[in-house]
Model the fold of this input.
Amino acid sequence: MGAREPAVNQRVLVVDDDADLRQLFEVALAQKGFRVTLAESGDAALSALAAEPIDAVVTDLQMRGMDGIELARRVAEGWPHLPLLVVTAYGSIPSAVGAMRAGAYDFLTKPVDFDALHLSLRRGIEHMSLRREVQRLRQSLAHAQRYDELVGESAEMRALFDMVGRIAAVHSSVLLCGETGTGKGLVARVLHRQSPRAAGPFVVVNCAALPATLLESELFGHERGAFTDAKGKRTGLFVEASGGTLFLDEVGTLPLELQPKLLRAIEDRVVRPLGSNQEVAVDVRVVAATNIDLEAAAVEGRFREDLFFRLNVIQLSLPPLRERDGDALLLAQRFIDQLAPRFGKTVSGMTEAVAEKMMTYPWPGNVRELHNCIERAVALTRYDRLAVDDLPDRMRAHQTTLLVEELERAEAWLSIDEVERQYILRVLQALDGNRSETARVLGVDRRTLYRKLIRYGVRSSSDGQQD
Done:
């Protein structure tokens, strides 16, 4: 594979006290697509750097006045992200090594191989560009810390930060809405930490994790002998959260028979443990989270309407990662910085190809999927930057060309059914025929997907497709 040509706006500063050599470099680099600025001395080079944007420097080692080593040191001090290449004779290689210690990016020996020079320049510019991007990301991360653990630069996240700051100071119930993996639990913790209740407990209840009988005991507590195996008294989580925040995760799965008792606990601020005749006063702020449409569930009778309104005093919708322009890269760098020390790795960033995948992949699992992806990549990588080979199969297989763009170029418009068919088959192909994973990405159950594939004439799993 040939070397990629530089962008037209990449300017190289050539420093040499030999006019003929300067001319030779100018012609050779211009043929490679670079714009060239010439300087006859180290002092002239520093003046040129101060006068115009430069993308790379090529300097002779032995020059009258300021030599290449001193110039490398001055460039490293004043322009730390600017790659500088030193050109030296064979006998001066130890001096070239000294220049690299002073800050030079690379060195080449005379006579210069201009193909090698072009390759070294391209790599140096790309490397320094990535270093600048990593620095920018880290500066953005430092700025984002004022929002506690929430990170993002997109307009959607800035709006979320603003709402979190305003909501945290009040005591009203909050309903967090959003897809799985968007960080509802993290937002709940931030709301608690920034609230006047921060010194109190933050108690989490996963409403989907326990059957109704155990969940009632978990929430409200029980007396000894209240039911089989109740061998002692238990304080419920409402009481444990008193003075702080109670986070009801996946509240849409709460059994209907428990919902009236939850409603009364929130409205009257009292709970009655199972088997007890005594009510216990509680002082909690309730934050609930759901990935389903609770309002629709209330209309359909699957969730109490009065409880929905009580939980939905303030609603905060979390945007999916695919709608957070640029945040995937920001979060990926944050996760790299967090995970690299855990795995004993020196990973500092990612290649351009990985960055492109991060920006174009739709992230159906949102931030949780991104974190898992980076954890896998950091654990497996053998390099100091994540490479495409380190990514999960589904990301490597993802095509950046959008189906919608292809349909817009089609000669005739297609029906909704045909668009759906093409999209389902595209996802199935990208995931190497894995039907379970395809169903998860599409957000449908496997039986629905299987029925559609049968209608499309796709072979069953017994005929070689993966399940």
Notes: The longest strand covers residues 285-290. Residues 1-8, 400-405, 461-467 have pLDDT under 50 and may be disordered. The chain is about 45% helix and 15% strand.
